[in-house]
Structure to design on (245 residues):
């Protein structure tokens, strides 16, 4: 019989990192956090989930079929036109991007602490560049993994590529993945990273998923947690920070 999420959580050890506050880190024997990887749509900016319905309509596929998997399954001569049909939807949507609450505050804190930041997204590069230029012009993310990188999330390859580019030799074990989808949680988990779910109305069910370590309602809720020392809780009640506490 397959294990339930609760059973998987019970078997998974707590994910812990030393406090980023240097005074508190002195007495901590926990692993040092080396970097944080962020998703884009629904994480750095507010969700624009309506795009996915538009994309599937443009491609003529049902909700049960993954958009990128479908495109890559097409004959090579048809793939560029299919890509362009969804890029057009993303280009239109990016003009109405809104930053997530707490975005600037969290990035200001991470920059102050000298924390490496990367991006791993299934978006193409233009909406990502638009978001960063408009809302975070003074913050650096590197590397930025977009749709051009294959295989995409939920495969952990993008996160592992980021870890390797930072010179880390333990895969994603010294990283946190912040996202809003099952693809984000699964990719982070498979890479060995701790996972943080930014909760919204569409992803509530992922609060209790075995691949979710911590839930937050706003990005800046991470500031206190990182400053005091990150703990990925093993039970649902203590894992929920902020809304629904």
């Amino acid at each position: 019989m397959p294990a339930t999420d609760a059973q998987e959580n019970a078997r998974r050890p707590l994910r812990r990192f030393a406090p980023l506050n240097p005074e508190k880190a002195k007495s901590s024997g926990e692993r040092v956090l080396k970097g944080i990887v962020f998703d884009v749509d629904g994480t750095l900016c507010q969700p624009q989930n309506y795009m996915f319905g538009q994309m599937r309509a443009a491609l003529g596929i049902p909700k049960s079929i993954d958009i990128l998997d479908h495109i890559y399954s097409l004959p090579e001569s048809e793939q560029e036109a299919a890509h362009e049909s969804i890029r057009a939807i993303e280009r239109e949507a990016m003009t109405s991007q809104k930053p997530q609450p707490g975005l600037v505050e969290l990035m200001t804190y991470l920059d102050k602490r000298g924390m490496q930041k990367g991006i791993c997204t299934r978006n193409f590069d233009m909406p990502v560049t638009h978001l960063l230029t408009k809302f975070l012009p003074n913050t650096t993310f590197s590397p930025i993994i977009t749709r051009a990188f294959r295989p995409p999330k939920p495969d952990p390859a993008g996160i592992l590529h980021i870890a390797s580019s930072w010179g880390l030799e333990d895969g994603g074990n010294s990283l946190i993945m912040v996202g809003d989808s099952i693809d984000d949680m699964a990719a982070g988990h498979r890479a060995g990273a701790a996972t943080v779910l930014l909760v919204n109305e569409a992803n509530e069910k992922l609060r209790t998923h075995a691949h979710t370590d911590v839930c937050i309602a706003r990005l800046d809720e991470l500031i206190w947690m990182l400053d005091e020392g990150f703990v990925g809780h093993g039970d649902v009640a203590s894992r929920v920070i902020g809304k629904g506490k």
Q: What stands out?
A: The first strand starts at residue 15 and ends at 16. The beta strands are 15-16, 35-38, 116-120, 144-145, 175-179, 194-198, 214-216, 231-232. The chain has a mean pLDDT of 90.
